[in-house]
Design goal:
four-stranded antiparallel β-sheet; mainly beta
Amino acid sequence: NMKDKGEYKKILRDAAVKHIMEGKMNLDLKSNNSSFSLPAQNAKGVYFIQIADIFNRTIYSQQLIVE
């Protein structure tokens, strides 16, 4: 859903809004894939994925449930 090319920050938080992982991603118009790898013993739970712009504004947020 993001239309502007550029560098973004991807953030993974748990249900208690604790910061789990962070990384950078570059967005271009052809393909945009990015992932997080969670250790199997800690993977179950509710997480929130956020994408932030260069001004640290959240432009995308999605809840993720791992069973």
